[in-house]
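Database export, one record per block. Field names are fixed; values are copied verbatim from the stored entry.
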Amino acid sequence: MSEIIDLDAMLAKIHLQPSDLDGQKYASMVEHLSRHHLPTWEMGKMAAAARVKEVVITHIVPTDPSPVQAENLRQGIMPHFKGTITIAHDLNKF
């Protein structure tokens, strides 16, 4: 579908990294991430509207989510979509 994001998890990850981001650069990055990446609830609504049976999430920010992060992505989609949700990993085949 598109790039999906757990914005809170991504921003938390950014805060853990040493950075030279000033307030303006940080605000621009937050705007980019929120404008050009789908939140999980929106992915769920789109999948439900399309009446698909399965959603395969292939382009995730942050990349390579931990099992906890993957479950958080599922939990964000599930209120709106009742089908199968698969979190893909590099080199998976479908």
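Remark 1: The mean pLDDT is 86.
Remark 2: The chain has four helices and five strands.
End of record.
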